[in-house]
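We close this part of the discussion by returning to an individual protein. The sequence in question and its structure tokens are set out directly beneath this paragraph:
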Amino acid sequence: MNIMLELDTLLDYMYKMNYKIVASRTSGAILVVAIALTMISIAGCRDDEIVVRPEHNDTGGPIASKHTGLYVLNEGNMGSNKATLDYLDFSTGVYSRNIYPSRNPREAMELGDVGNDIKVYGGSLWIVVNQSNKVEVTDARTAVSRGRVEVPNCRYMAFKDGFAT
């Protein structure tokens, strides 16, 4: 606001002194607003990525199983975008909480609102996030996102003959 008042004062003075002004008051105000928005957008940019690191807990050693691990989908509270994905590595016995943000730093920090179902099929991990109206698809081994499918009010899924239902 201070800049606008100073610009108006300067333009008034120039008109009174009969200076030839190419820009009108309106275009001068637009220029000031454009410069201010440019400065704000440059200041708002960040070069570093914020990565939420998972919390690791030792469960007491390796777990004997024919499987390599276990994914746990935490529902989160409705309306708070707090669904998370955990992983228990059977070979080390380490339980890692909230692994999705660290594996996908360019994605949103959480999976979404109300994680409802999770399945492994065809080398992919399929995660149903009900209130966010999506099915998140990640690599089953790494949990790195492969993409998402928009599905309104999806709650559960099943697979048969290469198709999801």
Remarks:
- The chain has two domains: 2-44, 55-164.
